[in-house]
Amino acid sequence: MIIKTSTPTMESADAYNAEISANATRFAASLFLGRGKFANAEADTREAIDAAAAQLSADNPNATAKPIIVAFDATGNQTVISGKPHKAPKAPKAPTAAKAAKADKPAGKRAEILANAEAGTLPAKPDFSAATHARFRKKLDEIIALVEAGDIKALMAYPINPISSSPKAMDRYRNLAVTALEAQRKAAKAAR
Fold first, then answer.
1. How far is CA 178 from CA 41, 114, 134, 147, 162, in A?
2. pTM for the full model?
3. What confidence score (pLDDT) does residue 8 get?
4. Which sign does the torsion angle of CA 85, 89, 94, 100 carry?
5. 126-152 b/e (C-beta count within 10 Å ≥ 16 → b)
6. In the chain, which stretches have pLDDT less than 50?
7. Over the Cα atoms of the chain, what is R_g?
8. Cα separations in angstroms, 13 against 16, 17, 20, 80, 107
9. What's the Cα-to-Cα distance from 133 to each of 136, 146, 165, 166, rounded to whole Å?
10. Alpha-carbon distance 86 to 149, whole Å?
11. Per residue in 166-190, pLDDT tens?
């Protein structure tokens, strides 16, 4: 079970951007006019921002660039969607024999860790022994205490701003721990 938090899936850049685009609640367009000047527009739908971006270009014929369109999800995560067509995703093709052989390849380490968490196995604690992690050790210890206490609600509410490697590692650990704890609770309920 994947938990929806403020951080979209980090499996790949494409998956991250696709998740933000699919869950976008607002859009912004910005057209560079030159020397620090921009023409801007906002909209609530992709169709409306595409129309607004076209209008920005029409209103500013001397602009040499195309408008940059950005999608924002409800928690403020953003991705640039300029130049990407607004179409429904295509249904995947049936796997061929060559692709079926590829599926036999063992899953990557991250996929294995996620599968273990979904099975109820708590993830390993991040190694913050390096000096670069020093200022985050106290926060990690607080998160570990919440995991050991099994306090899912407090873990979900714990504020983490994943903008550098240490907070990203804490966020990944917290999300995997929540997944594992929820799987453990589900298994305990099923055993009753």
1. 39, 11, 24, 8, 17
2. 0.46
3. 63
4. positive
5. bebeeeebeebeebbeebbebbeeeeb
6. 1, 3-4, 88-89
7. 22
8. 5, 6, 11, 12, 19
9. 5, 20, 9, 6
10. 45
11. 999 999 999 999 999 999 998 888 8
Both structure tokens of 10: 């980090």
Structure tokens at 35: 């020397």
Neighbouring CB atoms inside 10 A of 169's CB total 19
Give the H or E element holding residue 24. strand 24-34
Q: What is the pLDDT of residue 17?
A: 80
Cα–Cα distances in Å, from 136 out to 46, 109, 139, 167? 39, 24, 5, 8
Contact 20, 42 (CB under 8 A): no
Q: Which residue has the tokens 């921002």?
A: 49
